[in-house]
Design brief:
The structure is a single chain. This protein has 83 residues and is an all-alpha fold. The chain has one domain: RNA polymerase sigma factor, region 2, helix turn helix motif (Rna Polymerase Sigma Factor, Chain: A, Orthogonal Bundle), CATH 1.10.1740. Helix content is 76%, strand content 0%. It is built from three helices and no strands. Helix 1 runs antiparallel to helix 2, helix 1 runs parallel beside helix 3 and helix 2 crosses helix 3. The longest helix is centred in the C-terminal third of the chain and has 25 residues. It is elongated and about 55 Å long. The N and C termini lie far apart (56 Å).
Length: 83
Amino acid sequence: MDDATLTFDRHRPRLQGIAYRMLGSVAEAEEVVQDAWLRWHEAAKDTLDSAEAWLVTVVTRLSIDRLRAAKIQREHYIGAWMP
């Protein structure tokens, strides 16, 4: 394993915890962490001051994006309304 993978794996439990607390679902938290892994894989790691801060920021923003998308989807419900 390379250094980038080891760094991500070291922070994975914290990242999953943050995403789970924000989203309330283990499955969605795992998806957010996977998305963060993809972004981490493409990031220019040599320019980062703190890998942990970068990863926490990415997971937080991805979680917020998911919450916003869920809110929009609930607001535009097309199905029949039940009294």
